[in-house]
Design a protein that fits this description.
single chain, alpha+beta, Rossmann fold, Arc Repressor Mutant, subunit A, 2 domains, four-stranded antiparallel β-sheet, three-stranded parallel β-sheet, globular
């Protein structure tokens, strides 16, 4: 959605809700936005599946229905909804939900394959092993998980060292190398993958 891209969200559009779920289980998303067009919508089962996979994901509906007609759907765990004619406010709604979520949760956990990243505890776990992360390592993983598994190198540098004007890619590569080395202590599976000439993504 161009509306969300203007608000600096990284968007992964889907053709339908089934496709959305398959993308969801294959990556790490902070938000899931589902469009409900008619009374016979199939959102309920998708929402239940997403909630079973990740209780922390923020789910928002875009609807053309009176609120009373989606009452049962909201009870399944939807965090909010906007009407189609309020679509321009979607980015603001997501930012407010993100802020509220950050204030009410003590340990935010992201999942990718066998890995679980505990942001507030600065921990990365894989099965029954775990490593403690430095501040920079935690920021690198947070940006990767928080941006749907991919981030440009320049944006990652800005997020980590936002008080510096120089984009030091060598410095970033060194930190990524050290993070990968530490991850190998708990798993033979790679977690951070380089995208040549672009940035980094979850493997």
């Amino acid at each position: 959605m161009r509306i969300l891209e203007k608000d600096d969200f990284l968007v992964s559009p889907c053709l339908n809700q089934e496709n959305a779920y398959h993308q969801f289980i294959g990556s790490a998303f902070r938000f899931v936005v589902l469009s409900v067009e008619d009374k016979g919508h199939q959102s309920s089962s998708i929402i239940q599946q997403i909630r079973e996979k990740d209780k922390n994901c923020i789910i928002v509906l875009i609807i053309n229905l009176p609120a009373i007609e989606i009452g049962d759907t909201l009870k399944l765990g939807v965090d909010s909804f906007v009407y189609q004619n309020q679509i321009n406010d979607l980015g603001i709604r997501l930012l407010l939900l993100k802020r509220r979520y950050s204030q009410t949760n003590t340990d935010q956990v992201f999942h990718h394959k066998d890995f679980s990243f505990h942001e507030d505890l600065s921990l990365l776990r894989c099965k029954n092993k775990e490593i403690h992360l430095s501040k920079t390592e935690k920021l690198i993983l947070y940006e990767l998980f928080n941006r749907n598994g991919f981030i440009e190198a320049r944006r990652l540098i800005r997020s980590i060292w936002n008080d510096e004007m120089i984009f030091d890619t060598d410095r970033l590569r060194t930190r990524i190398f050290n993070l990968r080395k530490k991850i190998r202590l708990i798993s033979d599976t790679s977690l951070v993958k380089s995208v040549k000439g672009s940035g980094y993504m979850l493997a």
